[in-house]
Design goal:
Length: 127
Amino acid sequence: HVRLVETGGGSVQAGGSLELSCAASEDTICISLMGWYRQAPGKERELVATVNLNFGGDPTYAESVKGRFTISRNAPRNTVALRMTGLKSDDTAVYYCRTQRPSNSTYWQNRCDYEYWGPGTQVTVSS
């Protein structure tokens, strides 16, 4: 199983910045995509940003964070970071790190869970 440890949450005023980091360990062969989701009170969990940990390429961002959030990766260290700027009260949520296995082939289905989640870190933006 992939173990995920998130750091960097906290409280900030609107317009401020925060950076989240997620470090993966144990069975990192099971990681293809790695990124961030968030869940606000009373709402469903949603994608924030994700990237291919080992090959890079264009990250995927939620429309609501484009131009404000930047995801970066460090493949040798199995980490991703999320730089959040121009924070708004709507960004208040628990942020979760998530990884996804490389494929749904029989080999990977037997080898890894489809996805792994971190415990989450709270981000609170006050207006």
